[in-house]
Amino acid sequence: MVGSAFAEAGADLELVGIHKRFPGFTAIEDLDLRIPAGSFFALLGPSGCGKTTTLRLVAGLEQPTSGRILIGGKDVTDVKSFKRPVNTVFQSYALFPHMSVLENVAFGLRRRGISDPVGKAHEALQLVELDHLAARRPQQLSGGQQQRVALARAVVNRPALLLLDEPLGALDLKLRRQMQLELKSIQDDVGLTFLHVTHDQEEAMTMADTVAVMNKGAIEQMGAPEELYELPRTAFVANFLGQSNLFTGPVISSKGESMVVDISGVKIEVPKDRSQRHNGEVTIGVRPEKLSVHSEAPAKAAGVNVLGPGRVTDVSFSGVSTQYLVAVPGLGPITVFSQNMVFGPIANLGAEVWVSWTVDHGFGLADDPGDAPRFASDTNTATIATQTRNELLAEIGEG
User: Using an 8 Å Cβ cutoff, are 76 and 61 in contact?
Assistant: First the structure.
């Protein structure tokens, strides 16, 4: 790939005390976030969590109710979207069908009066390995090729910050995985700051240096993908990033490097350095792929937790692994992912089994069952009417 002309690093992004309220609900509550220059940052969360609103605020398509947005140390909170050093790649590529690929990429440069727009467009297309298709129209390209043209069109403007809004959502699974690797490679080459908004956990963990998991207008946890997966802090993160088996019970012993939790009469050991809380009622967990299934009760061994006996209530083949649901009395269903090393299941439906995992694979959450909701519901009509009236009065005053 050609990356020399795009080697300038992007700018850092800082959100300070961002609060965004729409009539009837709060979309973002007191958000503080700093994204270092040149990084690939993913904002991950379910629909309605506030991630797309955050991206629109950064792009200048929405205004925060309060707070500041800084790009490269410059406050752009009140700067119009077209004056910000930002470009966005949407899920809908929005390519001009009557223009060639080359003309699509050069369009923005021509409008801004940038010198040598064609040469710069060719260079951007070389970056995404599509310069040989420069003369084609968008409808003559595959979905993945159109996505790369949209990326070249954004990168050619050399923005300090590139925003990616679910850019791979329209692609099939195989092509999406291929584009995940290509996007990361392009980001490494151009050195810009990428802010990627997605609800796809695999997509975020494959591409990003840092992932922020968002829920109900706030960031639940932020860190490297491996850190978030191996050591989730909350039940939301534990279950949104993959699956987790979670158990709640009192801590009955906390000595040395581990603690023991009573789960319906069964003693489960968890390392202290992998636990957020060390006393009282706690929630602990373990990932399904960390579990082993046994047809007989395994011998007691130091550093190993065992649950059972239980009954296999479901067996689901998924290619690289088989998922087992094991019902253990008093504990409910336990999910196990077993890699398919042999032909056929290792336990049949209805079989009596035990499950085990090494103590080092467990984790403890920071969740408190008594926690209050982050913000109260305020969807009543009186609140909506008041908010709308205030906004109209503000607009009249500005006029």
Answer: no
